[in-house]
Amino acid sequence: MSFYAPFCLPFIIGAVVMFATILWKWGSWLYRLPHADKMRILRGLPTTRTLSAAWEVVRESLLHRRIFRVNPLLGYMHMSLAFGWFLLIAVGWIETVAYLGFRFVPLQGHVFFKYFATGLEHKPVFDFLMDLLLLFVLSGVALAWGKRLYSRAMGMRRTTKHVLGDRIALSALWFIFPARLVAESLTCALYGGGGFLTGSIGAWMAGHIDAGVLIYLESAAWWIYSSCLGLFFVALPFSRYMHIFTEIPLIFLRHYGLRSSEKESAYDHFQIEACSRCGICIDPCQLQSVLQINDVQSVYFLRDRRYHSLRLQTADNCLMCGRCAERCPVGIDLNTLRLNSRDTMRNVPDEKRYDYLQGVDRSSGTGKVGYFAGCMTLLTPRILLAMERIFKASGEEVWWADKEGGVCCGRPLMLSGETDSALKMIQYNTELFRKHGITTLVTSCPICLRVFREEYRLDGIEVLHHSEYLLRLMRSGRLNVTHGAERFTYHDPCELGRGSGIYDEPRAVIEAIGELLEPAETREHALCCGSSVANTAISDGQQLQLARSVAAELDATGASTIVTACPLCKKAIARGTQTEVRDLAEIVAEHLQ
Amino acid sequence: MKRVIIIGGGVAGMQTALRLAEEGVEPLIVEKEAELGGKLRGWHRLFPSFTPASEVLGELRSRVARRGIEVMTSTEVKAVEAGAVTLVDGRRIEGDAVTICSGFDLFDARIKEEYGYGIYDNVFTSVDIERMLNEGRVARADGSRPRRIAFLHCVGSRDEKVCQRHCSRVCCVTGVKQAMEMKELFPEADVFNFYMDIRMFGPGYEEMYREAQQRYNIHFVRGRISEAAPTIDGRVQIKAEDTLTGRPLRMSVDMLVLLVGMRAGETNPAYEAAGLGRLESGFMAPRDSFLGNVRSRTEGIFYAGTVTAPKNIGETINEGCAAADAVLEYLKKS
Hints:
The complex is a heterodimer of chains A (593) and B (334). Chain A contains 28 helices and eight strands. Chain A has helices at 8-31, 35-44, 48-62, 65-70, 72-100, 107-111, 113-116, 124-149, 164-191, 198-208, 211-235, 243-255, 267-272, 286-289, 298-306, 312-316, 323-327, 334-346, 374-378, 381-394, 411-415, 419-435, 446-454, 466-475, 504-511, 540-555, 567-574, 584-590, and strands at residues 369-372, 398-400, 440-443, 462-465, 487-491, 515-517, 561-564, 580-583. In chain A, the strands form two sheets. A four-stranded parallel sheet of chain A has the order 2-1-3-4. Chain B folds into two domains: 3-103 and 265-333, FAD/NAD(P)-binding domain (3-Layer(bba) Sandwich), CATH 3.50.50; 109-261, FAD/NAD(P)-binding domain (3-Layer(bba) Sandwich). Chain B has seven helices and 20 strands. In chain B, a hairpin with a 4-residue loop joins strand 16 (236-242) and strand 17. The longest helix of chain B is centred in the last third of the chain and has 21 residues, at 313-333. The chains are: A mainly alpha (593), B alpha/beta (334).
């Protein structure tokens, strides 16, 4: 039995190009990984992490559990295409084995088995199974067509605007399965057999179409099917469909502990090319929903970076609020990738600019607890005064790092890509903290908190946000507050919530003082105040528009006071509402017993 | 006799009413406060001549009284339409025309939290200084004499961060005037004015500015103060940048005075709801900046004074006359 026919050629060429390109890509990325990352992989391989990664591959690359969480219909669409196609291949392989036993069958023999197996005795079980699976995939294709017309039905207000290459690949993909259905049905029409789908259509065709015509049609249909496959395979490594294969190594590498950092690395390619451009990141973006900016969202950022057409305006125009990363079904570390793009495009440290850092120490007081107000708290002195009262009431001896002015924590520079300049600040402050021998570092600014926790090496010093610290004081009985009937609502700062995972502490503090009312979008889904230091592209007026939309949601709770735990959010939201906006520390200081 | 309703009994409202009364029209002033005078009641002496504000106010009030102009005080307007206003208590007053003279509001300096107004002692606004001058006692919170005073220009003006893009115009010269008054009261004190630009637009202003520097030895530093903080001894430490020398500077002062700007009046949105145009700054938009500068988009509704833009008192008085003339012309036609 021979497994070759001329129509197989497009498929064979496509498959060869695809696998060669993918292997070359993976190989070069892996080769260029930093040594430490390579060692992580080697150490991780023989552990259970490999197993848990494999299990995640099944859940995410095949079943698409995370997309189901966004919208069940959208999840089913992706699952039917991915898992359905996978099953078609797997069951198809079993089918060949069942027919021919264990013997070498070339790839096209498996894929076009129906064409080659006409002389063999039919096995109705496989006919049925393969038709069922084909129907499963076709239902996904039908949904994909439907999504083009009405994406809202799948929970997406907006979908990605695709580039030409993606459109070609997408069209090829859409026609693969209908073409397969037609080709297999025509073969059944000529030679009989087939399940409930191909068999029935084949029988109908045999009854209505002349046999001479059928022979031509069959040949043409297999050519079309093979060509669609070939075209799709050639396009795959260069289009969004590269995600199909890239997500798999990404999941493994992630389990081995590889992460992107503020400097670009070869690992980033695995993240960037794992983006399927599904566009789920577009809807949560407030730049889109409030400001109608449509070309900077993560999907477009990753696309531009992948095709080397990224402009600084695109990289810069992001609040880095993390709302998109929260929803990304592939779990791509979107903020870090944007950060290291900014680093590549802008990191030009001015060696002389920071000479003034030498020998500066304006700190005051002594104590094991250090308090770092940060620039924004110094610009919102009510918070600083409240902290002063709280420290006094709890009897804490405090070392004030920057009450008389200090050096920036470095995060704003880091967010703008000036990583090396930021490192100078980081080094300065680290030495300052060490010099004064503190064991706890409290800050009321989540922007500072994040960089202290992620970039500083502060072994032996516990870093706390004031919300955590306040709750600790209250729980240990060192700080007593009065509980009243006042109604508060709470705004989750991005850097504190999604950035540092602190959601419960500020809420617990508020509930000790009054009633807490949650806005419509809260915790992981909370909105950004709009004044993020990470965005240097939008104008002040646009920041205000964002602030107003956030404030409207907070005001809708009917609370008399909006509470937040970030001085920047406080300033931003106050611009958008008449309601009083207070920091957590302020309401605690006001309700001290 | 034709009746014209005038919303607001400040300088603009009184002058409009006076002019209308002279021409035989019956004006009715509706004033939300208990007495006539508007913001002028809070001022001490007026730039550039240092004329006591009470002189101007007293003269305007007595003219209004002599003319027997009808005034409704402690009466607030809720809605306006051509030929009538509705009061907060629901009453409706009808007339043949309406002139809106409801003026401006002062920028609330507490919004610029970084300057510590309402948080630290010894941070004042220009309005506080006028009040203290009127009370005859200018002093620090502890009653002592200041030895170093800083004025900060453009608080709530030309500041996108607080949604106030416009220039309030009169704060520059107010800052110069108050600096001179401080220097007269405390000759031994150092007085600094921190500014972005000094805008001396009126007659005699530039001369005053020169005198402040040459004769009063007041220091003008180009640069905004970025933040203020209290010191242990109750002074205020300010951080700024001298943008002419490019150097950051910090100094402790005994008093920090914030020259607060003019905000659009809080009743302006209600006028907008009646179909009148409003500028991006929140002030009301006159029909045009030239021949229609005291007319609104709606026939029969007119503007005078700072309801349309920041103005000084002289300009406001002129506009009162201009608005009255426009009203008279309208009444003749109708």
